[in-house]
Amino acid sequence: MALRDGSIAALVHAASDRLIATGIPPIEARLDGELLARVALGGWDRATFIVRSPEPVPPGSAEAFELLVARRLRREPMAYITGRCEFWGFDLEVTPDVLIPRPETELIVEVATQLFAGAPPPGVVVDVGTGSGCLAIALAREFPGARVLATDVSPAAIEVARRNARALAVDERVAFSVSAFTGEAAGVSLVVSNPPYVAEGDRASLQPEVRDYEPAGALVAGPDGLDVIRELAEAAWTALVPGGWLVFEFGFGQDAAVRTLLDAGPRSGAWAEWKIHGDLQGIPRTAAARKAP
Question: Collapsing DSSP states into helix, strand and coil, what is residue 152?
């Protein structure tokens, strides 16, 4: 095969052009091609790749690289191909059983830490729909004295989260439960969640990487995308101690509906206060609501 001839750099360049032709943005395609090459070359770091990219392709590496590129050409997410993803400064295992953590979800951790700055830290934290465990682990690291409960209806997702907690040495402070959170926990100071929030009618328009590969149960939540958030608000209000906080993510363009939901409050009572937070681009992404003291 022609791609097996020449330098590593030429191999990666040709593969990147093929990725671009499938609709992947050029900058992303170049980065993907390089990362896949580094994996195929045995896990080279970027410095090694830059220095050695003019060299001939080592025997066997082109074949390994081509298998990886073929997966990306089918629009499989890079995180599933490599099995890894970074979140809040640490490395996580990810599999097709869990949603791939996004940079915007880090806003939940940022908001949560701000809410408790200068105040007693949360004693009990609940992460609803934990997936990879990214939020539970990040908050266990940010609040070393807290006990964290991570729930998910997917047993496979819980196993991924357990492995991540163990690898990052927080497994003794994070408990896992295969369940839907209904507010049964006691003494909870903080509830966080990156819940499903895609409307059923919008799933077809999602990027192929999301629509065709990520678990539907972690994405879609009813006709308007807010079914799970409504349940979450009710369960969180029940579980929270007076003055406790609920912090959750929602989708692009859902801020008006979320404002209405928070204004109305859960069936059990009203929120004492709430605020919508924007991401780095100013797009409303995260809501924080406090139970009355």
Answer: strand
Ranges of residues in the chain whose predicted pLDDT is under 50: 1-4
Count the neighbouring beta carbons within 10 Å of the beta carbon of residue 75. Answer: 17
Least Cα distance to 3 among 77, 67, 72 occurs for: 67
Let me know if residue 79 belongs to a domain.
no
The residue with tokens 């806003």 is 107
**Alpha carbon distance 198, 181 (integer Å):** 20
Angle at 119 between CA 113 and CA 125, to 5 degrees: 50
In 3-state terms, what secondary structure has residue 285? strand
Q: Which residues contact 265 (CB under 8 A, 6 or more apart)?
A: 233, 237, 271
Q: How far apart are CA 39 and CA 35, in angstroms?
A: 6
Q: CA dist 49 to 26, 27, 38, 45, Å?
A: 19, 17, 7, 6
CA-CA distance, 15 to 37, in Å (whole number)?
10
Q: Of 153, 150, 169, which is closest to residue 161 (Cα–Cα)?
A: 150
Q: How far apart are CA 246 and CA 127, in angstroms?
A: 10
| pLDDT at 4 (0 to 100) | 42
CATH number, domain with residue 269: 3.40.50.150
Whether residue 166 contacts residue 192, with contact meaning beta carbons closer than 8 Å, is answered with: no
What is the CB neighbour count within 10 angstroms for residue 165? 23
- The pTM of the full predicted model, rounded to 2 decimals, is 0.93
Provide the number of structural domains found in the chain. 2
Can you give the pLDDT at residue 185? 84
Question: Cα–Cα distance between 82 and 60 in angstroms, integer?
Answer: 18
**Interhelix angle for 227-239 vs 255-264, to 10°?**
40
Is the distance from CB of 98 to CB of 115 less than 8 angstroms?
Answer: no
The range of the structural domain enclosing residue 275 comes to 88-291
Taking the chain, what is the end-to-end CA distance rounded to the nearest angstrom? 69
Compute the distance between CA of residue 196 and CA of residue 219 in angstroms, rounded to an integer.
Answer: 4
